[in-house]
Amino acid sequence: EVQLVESGGGLVQAGGSLRLTCALSGFNVDDYTVAWFREAPGKGLEGVSCIDNRIHSREDTTWYADSVKGRFTISSDAATNKVVLQMNRLNAEDTAVYSCAADSYYGCNNIALLRTWGQGTQVTVSS
């Protein structure tokens, strides 16, 4: 069974850091594009970051939303089959439920089309 499980969310003060993990099971992270999304109360779903691990991909290997560039870093670990989102200098606007999604066909240019999703983890930043 293909499954994604997010972890690492929690409550942090503004200016602090959190490390979110997306654990993949049933498929190999090296064959997939994995993206992080977030949804804040009263707002729509927003793409945050993406990493394209597909060996034959001709698209950009990583992507970040403008709102997180320079603060968030996405990385992939084949040994543990996980994708990590390191989030630094967090602010109240980063408060949201963060979810990861994956796909073997679509790359970071089409993150809205990624088809396998996790359940999400809550991130709350206190100001």
Q: Features of this protein?
A:
127 residues, mainly beta
Chart the SSEs and their pairings.
Elements: E1 3-7, E2 10-13, E3 18-25, E4 33-39, E5 45-52, E6 62-64, E7 72-77, E8 82-87, E9 96-103, E10 116-117, E11 121-126
Parallel strand pairs: 2-11
Antiparallel strand pairs: 1-3, 3-8, 4-5, 4-9, 5-6, 7-8, 9-10, 9-11
Describe this structure in words.
The protein is built from no helices and eleven strands. The chain has strands at 3-7, 10-13, 18-25, 33-39, 45-52, 62-64, 72-77, 82-87, 96-103, 116-117, 121-126. The strands form two sheets. Strands 2, 4, 5, 6, 9, 10 and 11 form a seven-stranded mixed β-sheet that branches. Strands 1-3-8-7 form a four-stranded antiparallel β-sheet, with no helix packed on it. Strand 7 (72-77) and strand 8 form a beta hairpin.
Q: In summary, what is this structure?
A:
The protein has 127 residues and is mainly beta. The protein is 0% helix and 50% strand.
Number of strands: 11
- Series of secondary-structure elements, N-terminal to C-terminal: EEEEEEEEEEE
User: Count of helices?
Assistant: 0
| Helical content class | under 10%
Q: Work out the strand percent.
A: over 45%
Report the uncertain regions. none
Q: How many strands, what sense, and barrel or not for the largest sheet?
A: 7 strands, mixed
Q: Averaged pLDDT, please?
A: 95
Cα gyration radius (Å): 14 Å
Span of the ends, CA to CA: 40 Å
Structural class comes to mainly beta
Which of globular, elongated, flat, extended, rod-shaped describes the shape? Answer: globular
